[in-house]
Design goal:
mainly alpha; 266 residues; elongated
Length: 266
């Protein structure tokens, strides 16, 4: 087991050496090549690893990180790529996002944790393969003992972990959004009956207020007027009323004296 662990550490160091050589080679890519790299098919997942975007070692210092960002941002900046402004803008945004992510201690730690998890997974797989080979009485040499194969295995597993985490994050956001929408709908359904009942109570109160207020147009006022009209039409005329109407309608009484006579009779 100790030998296996030592071999894994040596392989990992070799892996990092290879990575640095590749980074050194890629660091002199032209602007177009860098833009193509950052926008290649599957870039939405490749670019989840900020160290991959900036092509820098995870153990790089903050000063090295800053220097690398400046180099790469100049190469892909839209102002330097007037013949391909739109794609250059997207590439620049990817570089800027990766740099800002690594400036945040929490985000940087999460990225490093994913990279270390990818390495540990590959080492565990190698250990399991060796155990099985030993059990079968075969040489305990696995393909990942080749530094290049090991590097590719770690790279692929790391990218896979970044992608899985991103998918889970999106699923969680979608679930939370649906839960918020459902809660808003339930809240509206709960408040709708109360609003309806409140409207009915308000309507009944208005009718009651109008009835009891006794206003000119209220049902109660109309009923009072109707009753007064009925009593007036059915009341018998008095003797003096009949006499006064007869005198007022006759031509025998002077017009000037008609009003005063009626006043006296009443």
């Amino acid at each position: 087991m100790a030998a296996g662990g030592s071999g894994g550490d040596e392989a990992f160091q070799t892996f990092y050496t290879e990575v640095k050589q590749i980074e050194k080679r890629d660091s002199v890519l032209t602007s177009k090549q860098q833009i193509d790299r950052l926008l290649r098919p599957g870039a939405s997942y490749f670019n989840l690893n900020p160290f991959e975007v900036l092509q820098i070692d995870p153990d790089a210092t903050d000063e090295e990180l800053k220097k690398r960002f400046r180099q790469l941002s100049i190469l892909v900046h839209p102002d330097k790529n007037q013949d391909d402004v739109d794609r250059a803008q997207l590439a620049f945004e990817a570089v800027d996002k990766a740099y800002k992510m690594l400036l945040e201690p929490d985000h940087k730690k999460k990225a490093l944790d994913v990279i270390h998890a990818g390495k540990e997974y590959v080492e565990h797989t190698m250990s399991q393969k060796r155990k099985q080979l030993k059990k079968d009485g075969k040489p305990t040499v696995v393909e990942e003992d080749d530094p290049e194969v090991f590097r590719q295995a770690v790279y692929k597993q790391t990218m896979k972990l970044f992608a899985e985490l991103e998918i889970k994050r999106k699923e969680r956001e979608t679930k939370e959004m649906h839960e918020r929408d459902s809660e808003r709908k339930r809240s509206r359904r709960r408040s709708a009956p109360r609003e309806s009942e409140s409207g009915r109570r308000t309507s009944r109160r208005r009718v009651t207020d109008a009835w009891t207020a006794g206003g000119a147009s209220s049902p109660k006022a109309r009923l009072r007027r109707k009753r007064r009209t009925a009593r007036s039409s059915s009341r018998p005329k008095s003797r003096w009323s009949s006499a006064s109407e007869a005198l007022l309608s006759s031509d025998g009484l002077p017009s000037a004296n008609k009003r005063s006579f009626v006043d006296i009779m009443l």
